[in-house]
Write a structure and sequence with these properties.
acid-amino acid ligase activity; Rossmann fold; 2 domains; alpha/beta; 17 helices; GH3; GH3 auxin-responsive promoter; globular; GH3_C; GH3_M
Length: 508
């Protein structure tokens, strides 16, 4: 009998019984006030007169009027760079203990995003919320005695000017509570290995020693790790070595594009729980099984604003125009893409995180990630967002009985001077020719997106597709950044980067 598991599950159920439902709009007003009060005497707070702001009768509205939008480059050049010169109390009291390194999917060099002790606490609290929400998923008691494989970046953080630097997954893993360390795999020694291939090799070698009940990490890298374990032990599927694997916590990107290839590695279904942990904070987590949408962490150190994702509000580089209107949680609507803006206990203020979301349930503050502001393809009016592209990939998988685990696209002129969408799809072992897939992709996008259909009748000449092995995408990431961790493939490329990508593929 799973005695310990029953105790843990009982504590979770008891906590759920005595926890009142969060009123998300009220929680957000409280968070904003706490943020402004805490940062009132910082350089940023004095510059934007937080003291006067706090006297406003409509704090949310006055805040949006008084403080401009910032993307990373803007806030780093104006404020965050001061931390590296030894200054304190810049955008948050004191100095941050960590900087999260993130090149995202578009940057050429690593961003350095402050991570304060208050943010570490907020991330930990959000993780606890996720654990308690497991009560909603009707998991057996023995699940709570199994080990959890968290595959992120290295926990061997680099010391730099009185702070530590690393990717957010490595920072988070290095701060796990002591009571959790007995459940945490691959353990501290393996987690500190910097080289991703070496770390995964060690995981494969030790896999038989662990009783894994849950996995956590970005889908593409989790898949490669599972495949390595399967190949190393000559298995048919991962459940032959981890028979009690029941839960996969996806993070960083939408899981849907990876669902088919992920399931192919399993021997039986698992519960998939989506989470949204970014370098800037723990944004949201799925809290109930009836939906794959995630609930914003509205009461935990992050204040959210939402800008309607419309071309007239977006600059060519994906940044926001300052006149773009920002809505509060009380003002949003369903079936509308929004640019996500956050203010946090790490001293990010009205910060453009780069993601677009839509609400699936406003009362519950539940959202889905729909794409990236820089990955919105609007060349010649086609208005393709990442979620539309993802849906087209699922349509192709169903039509041709194939698996497409990665893709990238560029809109550019062809040799005839006309505009085309050039797609590279990552898929193994199919015999369908590129032209057939291109025609099917074109028809799928026409049916799903009226703006694309109009563009195809005018300035967008056509679609060109090249199917390549998925490992080219992983090798590209390794050459340009590194494997594993928070690294994600860019879905949309500009002309210059796409030329480098095509040269890379042709070299393989």
């Amino acid at each position: 009998m799973a005695i310990l598991g029953n105790i843990i599950k009982g504590v979770i159920e008891l906590k759920d019984t005595f926890t009142s439902e969060v009123i998300h709009g009220d929680a957000q007003k409280k968070v904003l006030r706490e943020l402004l009060e805490t940062a009132e005497q910082t350089q940023f707070g004095k510059h934007y007169n937080f003291e006067a702001l706090l006297k406003s009768e409509d704090l949310q509205h006055q805040y949006s009027k008084s403080v401009p939008y910032f993307d990373y480059n803007q806030i780093n050049e104006a404020w965050w760079h001061k931390y590296h010169n030894g200054e304190a109390d810049v955008t948050w009291p004191g100095q941050p203990s960590y900087f999260a390194l993130s090149s995202g999917t578009t940057g050429k060099t690593s961003k350095r995003i402050p991570v304060t002790d208050a943010m570490i606490d907020a991330i930990r609290n959000a993780g606890i919320k996720q654990v308690f929400s497991l009560n909603n998923f009707d998991l057996p008691a023995d699940f709570f005695e199994k080990e959890i494989m968290m595959l992120g970046s290295s926990t061997d953080l680099e010391e730099n000017n009185n702070h530590l630097e690393g990717e957010i997954s490595g920072i988070s893993a290095s701060n796990i509570p002591s009571w959790f360390r007995g459940y945490y795999k691959p353990g501290e020694e393996i987690s500190q290995i910097e080289d991703w291939d070496e770390r995964v090799q060690r995981i494969a070698e030790r896999a038989k020693d662990w009783d894994i009940g849950a996995l956590s990490g970005i889908p593409s890298w989790i898949e490669l790790m599972l495949q390595k374990v399967i190949d190393y032990h000559n298995l048919n599927h991962i459940h032959e070595i981890w028979p009690n694997l029941q839960v996969y916590t996806s993070g960083g990107v939408a899981f849907a594009p990876y669902e088919k290839s992920f399931n192919a590695l399993l021997g039986k279904p698992v519960t998939v729980i989506d989470t949204y942990l970014a370098s800037e904070g723990y944004i949201a987590t799925q809290v109930r099984p009836e939906t794959d949408a995630m609930q914003l962490n509205t009461d935990n150190g992050i204040y959210f604003e939402f800008v309607p994702f419309k071309p007239e509000y977006i600059n060519q580089d994906g940044s926001l125009k300052q006149e773009a209107p920002a809505l509060t949680l009380d003002d949003v609507e369903l079936d509308q893409d929004y640019v996500l803006i956050i203010s946090t206990v790490s001293g990010a203020w009205r910060y453009l995180i780069g993601d677009t979301i839509e609400f699936t349930n406003i009362e519950r503050a539940e959202i889905k990630i729909t794409g990236r502001t820089k990955f919105f393809l609007n060349t010649v009016g086609s208005q393709l967002s990442v979620n539309k592209m993802d849906a087209a990939m699922r349509d192709l998988e169903d039509q041709f009985n194939i698996t497409i685990s990665e893709y990238t696209i560029c809109a550019k002129r062809g040799g005839d001077g006309e505009f085309y969408h050039y797609w590279y799809l990552g898929s193994e072992g199919n015999s369908i020719d590129n032209a057939t897939i291109a025609n099917a992709l074109d028809e799928s996008l026409k049916k799903a997106n009226k703006n694309y259909k109009v563009a195809r009748s005018k300035a967008l000449k056509g679609v060109k597709v090249k199917v390549i092995p998925p490992h080219h995408f992983y090798d590209w990431n390794e050459r340009n950044k590194k494997k594993g961790g928070q690294v994600k493939m860019e879905r949309v490329m500009g002309d210059e980067k796409f030329k480098a990508w095509e040269d890379f593929v042709n070299e393989q």
